[in-house]
Amino acid sequence: MIKKVLIAEDHESASISVQKTLAEIGCDQADYVYYCDDALIRIEKACQSNSSYDLLITDLYFEEDHRKQQISNGRNLIIAARAIQPDLKVLVFSAEGRSVVVEKLFGECDIDGYVRKARGDAKELMKAIHQIDNNQRYFPIQFTQELKQNNHEFTEYDMTIISLMVQGKRQKEISEYLRDNNITPSGLSSIEKRLNYIKDVFGFSTNEQLIAHCVKIGVV
User: Fold this and answer.
1) Tens digit of pLDDT for each residue in 14-61?
2) I want to staple 113 with a disulfide (CB 3.0 to 4.6 A). Which of 91, 144, 161, 201 is the partner?
3) Domain range annotation of the chain
């Protein structure tokens, strides 16, 4: 359960807003820093004292000032923090709206959630923290909307098949599972046709590419 949170945010108003949001959901153990270097020091000291943080909420971009920093951005902070505490959950809260940047954070930094600073971001923060607390990744509304518009909206049937594939099940075993659980259609040909359709939508040629993509975007 998320009880102790560290906020790394160089804008005081944004930091206060995040603190209020945390208080509203019952999390009153929130520390905040304005510099990435300070955040890393806090994380290291917390681990050494056996009182590690459950969640790091960080911005991506930090303005430079008179104080020289070894870590100058949120991405590098995440990498350094995970080197100290591999199980640290990370939520990025940033004005960055480019999907390619967000995708890289999920794929390369394995972040647990991303919320864009915009209208209604306090409610989205609450939702994101709730999902992360339940060991689920949270993708920004804008990102999921673009995914649905440009690619494919996954059905429960799709997610069941792909989840079983992630577990290493072969199509014959998937067919048996669907049949045993009264999920239709359960035939091998139906499963293959559905997978081929989804691969065509994304432009993939193999099931392995589809699985990797689905894991990256949090479908499974």
Assistant:
1) 777 888 888 888 887 889 999 999 999 999 999 999 999 999 999 999
2) 91
3) 4-140, 151-217
* Backbone torsions φ then ψ of 10, nearest 5 degrees: -90, -10
On average, the pLDDT of the chain sits at: 87
Please state, in angstroms and rounded to a whole number, the distance separating the CA atoms of residues 72 and 180: 54
**For 182, left (φ over 0), alpha (ψ -120 to 50), or beta?**
left
Taking the alpha carbons at both ends of the chain, their separation in whole angstroms is 21
Does the domain made of 151-217 have the CATH classification 1.10.10?
A: yes
Three-point CA angle 90, 99, 216, nearest 5°: 55
How far apart CA 97 and CA 188 sit, in angstroms, is 41
The answer to whether 169 and 177 have CB atoms below 8 angstroms apart is yes
pLDDT tens-digit readout, 131-149: 999 888 888 766 655 554 4
Question: For 4-140, which CATH class?
Answer: alpha beta
- Pairing assessment for the beta strands 4-8 and 55-58 based on DSSP bridges: parallel
Burial class (CB in 10 A: 0-12, 13-18, 19+), 67: exposed
Rounded-to-integer distance, Cα 4 and Cα 212, Å? 32
